[in-house]
Design brief:
alpha/beta, 14 helices
Length: 334
C-alpha cells in the first residue's frame, strides 16, 4: 500500500541502526512496534526477534498486523477460501456499494459499482464464516487483510481516502481480484493490540521499543476511513461529501498535547532501548525530542535523507521539496 509515513524504504536503515545499538543477535529480544501502521517495521524484525508486539489504534492496521505479525505458522486451505470469495455473485444491498459508489445514488465514487458490490459480497461472506465458525480467527484476519489490500488497489483515490476522484482512474476501473496476503512463518508467538499507545505502554514490557507516531495534524483515521469501515463493517450514517465515520483524533497530532503525551510514553516505557522515527516537519522539533528523551537516559541521533510521500504523480511538482529528513532518535534508558 502507498501509505503516508510508510517505512518501507527506510526499514533496512532502521534495522541497521537498531543493531548498532542493541547488537546483531536479537533472537532473545522482545520488539514492540507501537504505532504500527501497515506493519512494515514489525515485519522487518519478525524473523530476527523472539517476539513482536504490534499496536495501532486504527482498526485497518490491527487487521493487517493480525495477519502479518500474529500469523506465523502454516495455514491450511487458505487458497481455497480465496477462490471461493473470488467466485461469489455480486450483491447490491451492501454498505460499501450503497454509500461509496455512484450507481447507488450516494454521489460518492470511492470504487466502481462492480467493485463496491464485490467488496460487500466478500466482506459479508467473511463475516458469515467467522460467525458460524467455518473459519478460525487466524484465517479470518488473513482473508480480511487480503480484502483490504486488494480493495485498496482498485480504490478511486489519490492513494488516501480523504477524497475520491471525480472520474474513475484506470486502476479503479479494473475488476477487483482478491489476492492472498502473505505472512512469514517463523513459528514464534507474537501479539497484536488495538489500543491507545499511552495506555498499552503501562501493560507491556520488552527490550526494544520502536515509535513512529503521527508527525503533524494529518489524521490517519480520516485519511483511511474507508479501510476502517471495511474492517469493522458496521452500520452508521456516513457524514458529508466524503462519507466519514466518527474517527480518532490522536494527541500526537495536536500541538498542545503532543509534548505531554510523548513524555508520558517515554517515562512509562519498560524497555531498555527506545527508537523514535520522526521527521523535520513534525510538531515536535529535534530539540524538543532531545530534551524529553535525555531526561530518561543516554540520548543519540541518526538522520537520513529520503523521498517524501507523494499521494500522486503531480504532488511532487506542486511541492517545494521532494526530499525530507528522517530523524531516528535513540534512547538507552537508565
Amino acid at each position: 500500500m502507498n501509505y503516508i509515513g510508510s517505512k518501507l524504504k527506510l526499514s533496512s536503515w532502521i534495522e541497521e541502526e537498531v543493531k548498532k545499538v542493541v547488537g546483531d543477535d536479537l533472537s532473545e529480544k522482545v520488539f514492540c512496534d507501537m504505532f504500527a501502521g501497515t506493519g512494515i517495521v514489525g515485519r522487518t524484525f519478525k524473523a530476527d526477534v523472539k517476539k513482536v508486539i504490534s499496536n495501532d489504534l486504527e482498526r485497518y492496521s490491527y487487521v493487517l498486523n493480525k495477519n502479518y505479525i500474529e500469523n506465523s505458522s502454516p495455514m491450511r486451505e487458505k487458497e481455497k477460501y480465496i477462490e471461493e470469495l473470488n467466485a461469489l455473485p455480486l450483491i447490491d444491498n451492501g454498505f460499501v456499494y450503497q454509500n461509496y459508489c455512484m450507481g447507488s445514488g450516494s454521489e460518492r465514487q470511492y470504487f466502481s459499482d462492480e467493485n463496491g458490490k464485490k467488496i460487500d459480497a466478500m466482506r459479508t461472506k467473511i463475516k458469515e464464516w467467522i460467525e458460524t465458525k467455518e473459519i478460525d480467527e487466524r484465517l479470518y484476519y488473513f482473508l480480511l487483510a487480503s480484502l483490504l489490500e486488494s480493495a485498496d488497489k482498485v480504490a478511486n483515490t489519490a492513494s488516501v481516502y480523504g477524497a475520491f476522484l471525480k472520474h474513475l482512474k484506470r486502476s479503479a476501473s479494473k475488476e477487483l481480484l482478491l489476492q492472498a496476503a502473505s505472512f512469514s512463518e517463523d513459528g514464534n508467538v507474537h501479539q497484536v493490540f488495538n489500543k491507545d499507545a499511552n495506555e498499552l505502554i503501562q501493560e507491556i514490557s520488552g527490550d526494544i521499543l520502536y515509535l513512529d507516531p503521527p508527525y503533524n495534524q494529518r489524521q490517519y483515521s480520516s485519511n483511511y476511513h474507508i479501510l476502517n469501515t471495511i474492517s469493522i463493517y458496521d452500520e452508521f450514517e456516513p457524514k458529508g461529501k466524503t462519507g466519514l465515520r466518527e474517527y480518532n483524533r490522536s494527541d500526537y497530532s495536536k500541538k498542545g498535547e503532543v509534548h505531554g503525551s510523548f513524555e508520558e510514553l517515554i517515562k512509562n516505557a519498560d524497555f531498555k532501548h527506545i527508537f523514535l522515527s520522526y521527521n523535520n516537519e513534525g510538531l515536535m522539533s529535534e530539540e524538543d525530542v532531545k530534551e524529553i528523551m535525555s531526561k530518561y537516559g543516554t540520548y543519540a541521533l541518526s538522520t537520513k535523507e529520503y523521498q517524501r510521500f507523494k499521494a500522486d504523480k503531480t504532488q511532487s511538482r506542486n511541492h517545494k521539496a521532494d526530499k525530507t529528513f528522517e530523524y531516528l532518535h535513540i534512547l538507552t534508558k537508565r
